[in-house]
Give the backbone structure.
Amino acid sequence: MSVRGNANTRSKECASIAAFYAGRNIFVTGATGFMGKVLLEKLLRSCPDVGEIFILMRPKRGLSIDDRLRKMLKLPLFDKLREENPSSLEKLIPILGDTSVEGLGIASIERHVIIERVSIIFHVAANVRFDEYLKTDMFSNVRSTRDVCILAGSMKKLVALVHVSTAYAHVDKPVIDEVLYPPLTDWRKALRMIETVDDETVRILTQKYVGSMPNTYTFTKRLAEQVINDYSKDLPCVIFRPTIVISSFREPVPGWLDNFNGPVAMMVGGGKGILRIVHLQPNLAADYIPVDVAINIMITTAWKRGLQTITKDPSVHVYNGSSYAIHRMTNRDLIVMGFKMNEEIPIEGSIWYPRIIITTNRIFHYVMTLLVHALPALIIDKALEAMGRRPMLMKIQKTIYSSSIRLYYFLHNEWIFHNDNMLKSLTDIPPAEKEIFSYDFSGINKEEYFRNCLIGAKLYLLNEDFTRLNEAKQHYNRMKWIDRIFHTCFILLLIWTFGKVIFFAPV
């Protein structure tokens, strides 16, 4: 191509995000996860001329990678794409591999194809469990990042590598800026230790390595950022740190989600009458970001990074994907709003009228958990067994309690996530594509958004039928009257007991 042709192409790419992605092949890890699926859908729908998208996948639950891909593409998330441009789905090419395996588990033939053809990488894969074994997290979060960087270093056409970290990789600081922080430890030495010593030694050394970090997830994500930093001298890197990624704001449909993470878990648990007491600081606020907003940031920042060569700009671009300075909602406000939404759109099959007690006292939480969670669950499970049905509530309550223990650090602290780089990049989006790739959600109506979150949970997680909404409301009202009758009887019993003690006590 001539110099003039290169200049024209460069000019088009600067003026259009879609033009930048046109003809470029992409490699994605974590494509079957929550963010990964939304990323694929958005790239195919909003960048119609994008090249092939190679997605790293492993067989799971007896399904091959091709079967898993076919099953994934049947999700409602892809309905709009199937209607508008079904042929675009043929651009998704599954690659057999595993981020927990050294070298990503990619065969030499596929590795050669990726090296020769890919120019953009989105490294989204991570083990996000908060109670995982250190060795598992080191392999899935740290070693995989190193192996992605090694692969990227061999690519002849690479223009951008976007690494998805987490804003909570730096929770040992009250204020988190969009900068690279000093490492907690040498990731190479830590990885060497994990690879060479036995499991029992790893367990003994875990607390020493994790140190001030609340769990192995945040610790290993912090180390992964250092991996990116060390390899960035030769690679055009972006580090994207989202906060808590939750239901979609707008695209492809409002309220899309595929997990019970974040506030949705509380809304569903409370709406079902299963969650009766929570242990958190009511006046603190968590930071949430809608998944489609996060994906638009990733696509836009890859475009920005790709416009500059590593020679002209050797820095790592860091973005905190947060709602700080845009929206703040306390835990109490969120719970109150959740119950308001549930009254309008009640969840089917609630076992009790929704009500939650908020406490900051650990002992009170434990005692009340036994009384209002464990005891009723035990009674209901015994009743289910007597009817020949499978008991389930006690298992659910154990999960709820263990989750509250794992999330304690995050429910009792609040951080400030500066996001100046994120907001500045918003102004760089080409005017003609503001509606397509914008992630400005400053004008979001919080009530409408969380109503869509609840609707999304009912549709996509609980598989509820909205034609039965009237029946759900009738059941909700029955639960309300049963709750009132129960509490009235309980109060009368207390008054009667107290009166009997006072007036009939022996002199």
